[in-house]
Amino acid sequence: MATGRTHRPANRSRGIPEATVARLPLYLRALTALSERSVPTVSSEELATAAGVNSAKLRKDFSYLGSYGTRGVGYDVEYLVYQISRELGLTQDWPVVIVGIGNLGAALANYGGFASRGFRVASLIDADPEMAGKVVAGIEVQHSDGLEQVIEDNDVSIGVIATPAASAQPVCDRLVAAGITSILNFAPTVLSVPDGVDVRKVDLSIELQILAFHEQRKAGELSDEDAEELPQGAGEVTASPVAPPAASVTKRGSGSGKSPAGASGGTSGRNGEPGSDGDVPAVMPA
Amino acid sequence: MATGRTHRPANRSRGIPEATVARLPLYLRALTALSERSVPTVSSEELATAAGVNSAKLRKDFSYLGSYGTRGVGYDVEYLVYQISRELGLTQDWPVVIVGIGNLGAALANYGGFASRGFRVASLIDADPEMAGKVVAGIEVQHSDGLEQVIEDNDVSIGVIATPAASAQPVCDRLVAAGITSILNFAPTVLSVPDGVDVRKVDLSIELQILAFHEQRKAGELSDEDAEELPQGAGEVTASPVAPPAASVTKRGSGSGKSPAGASGGTSGRNGEPGSDGDVPAVMPA
DNA sequence: ATGTGTGAACATTTTCACAGCG
DNA sequence: CGCTGTGAAAATGTTCACACAT
Prior knowledge:
Chains A, B: Residues 26-65 bind DNA. Chains A, B: This is Redox-sensing transcriptional repressor Rex. 2 copies of one chain form a homodimer. By secondary structure, the first copy, chain A, is an alpha/beta fold. Chain A is built from 9 helices and 10 strands. In chain A, strands 6-7-5-4-8-9-10 form a 7-stranded mixed beta sheet. Chain A has a 3-stranded antiparallel beta sheet with strand order 1-3-2. In chain A, strand 6 and strand 7 form a beta hairpin. In chain A, helix 1 packs across helix 3, helix 1 crosses helix 4 and helix 2 (44-51) crosses helix 3 (55-65). The longest helix of chain A has 20 residues, at 204-223. Chain B binds a DNA duplex through residues 9-11, 17-20, 43-45, 54-57, 59-60, 62-63, 67, 69-75, 270.
């Protein structure tokens, strides 16, 4: 690791913790908002609140980047915006290709957050010949055939997959073969990629399922809910493909409002690593 | 397998770790696929591979649910599907409202993964009168005015926010006031909610930023990249609203393909907790 | 005074490695 | 013998609390 930098405020020697990296965008967002309001400085307390974390965590996070604050005062907003942007690599332009221009792909293409931070949609790709030529978010959709060419011409290293689950792996393979080393996957599938390629995934239904888990807890605090273990004679609960596993209770009997025991905060999730096969029931828009 | 199950095998007393909960949907997806292929049993190794995790983690995760496997054999697919579904609360029907029917909202409404697992779109809501009446994913979009009514009528407890950032908090407040206790937020904003309400967020641009961070690392292994600290005279890096922070280097000079040092795996992220205010540059589709 | 920066305590998660059930 | 289930170790992440720079 060309960690040439022998001099360094304090930390910042090597590796910033993943957990910290994952929060930097959050801080950046809050800081950008402050910057727009021309706020010159913020305390860790204020910024933490705006970013939705606690101040101790925020200070610890910043300590990994270096000592960018002023004791007794706080942090210089503009300066921090710059430092974090640089740390995240947003001071450079990142061309991105989006594959699969269905509702989701279109939403992504139109998403302001992309363009607003160093990301530039280099191309929109779709396998459907019908889509080719159509203009989405001001960009002409291209047919999959040109995928490799676009990646090479624009030196793209980040690809977004918004195709149906079944096409995800094939598309992924082509992206990787064409030189892409970072993939954001929206298809509900585990992508298998070679070493050196990063994959992050966003799975809408997984998030909902996690919410359902907590929701169920809130409801079942007293109600006792389901039986206990299993309804006996397992193995026959449901075998119908792509259909809801079991019964349909249409929510628990409780009213709506609050719930007894808190079970509040519990918000946090994690994305996995690459893997291998994986085909799933659900199908995405396309 | 109606395993003898001595009743509450071992763990499973209370709280399943959050990290485990977040992976259950992953296992469920892999299991559902196996179920569709009529595979009767799987070993932790096979299932782990299909889910994109390692077997030790998977076994540990399952141990929190109870002893649902058979030593020397593996796990009964159907049985596990049922157990996990039940644990996640998917054996019941969860009505969901989606607010903000732009590209993203439409993509969500059409998303097969929702319907396929206990989630039912009870209503699509949009603030734009023009949208009211239009049919998306077979459901008629309703104007925001009816929000509270819909939630009450269908006893909805989960809401999805896919509105522009500026509307997110107001919408959130209404959802909460109407009795919703779980929110999936796609708007790039920190939502502030009372205790007892869960918020999970999905931020497209944050994921990309994390990828950019790793991508930058891969490239900068030897190149030395940017200068060092700051370009001095901070405070003027950029102040333009909703515009790229700094320069535009259009990626680093490297070619496309692989990169020297690995910097492989590094895939994992985390979502934050609820917070307070927060308004941001980017704007979502709507 | 005030609020950062951080060592150290605490908590959670992951990985190891192996006893023991089928 | 093979594979689960799980204590115990290691690694990561979070929170505390306070010295100390401004």
